[in-house]
Amino acid sequence: MTGRTRLAVWGDPIGHSRSPALHSAAYARLGLDWQYHRRRVDDGEFVETLASLDGTWRGLSLTMPLKEVAHAAADTRDAHAELTGAVNTLLLGETTRGFNTDVGGIVDAFRHAGMPALESVRVLGAGATAASALVAAHDLGARRAEVRARRPEAGARLVEIGAQLGIPVLVRPFDAPADAVDATVATLPSGTVLDPQIAAPFADTGGVLFEAAYAPWPSALAAGWTSDHVISGFEMLLYQAVRQIRIFLHGAQDERLPDEDVIVAVMRSAAMED
Question: Which domains does the chain have, with CATH numbers?
Answer without folding.
Answer: 5-100+235-273 (3.40.50.10860), 114-228 (3.40.50.720)
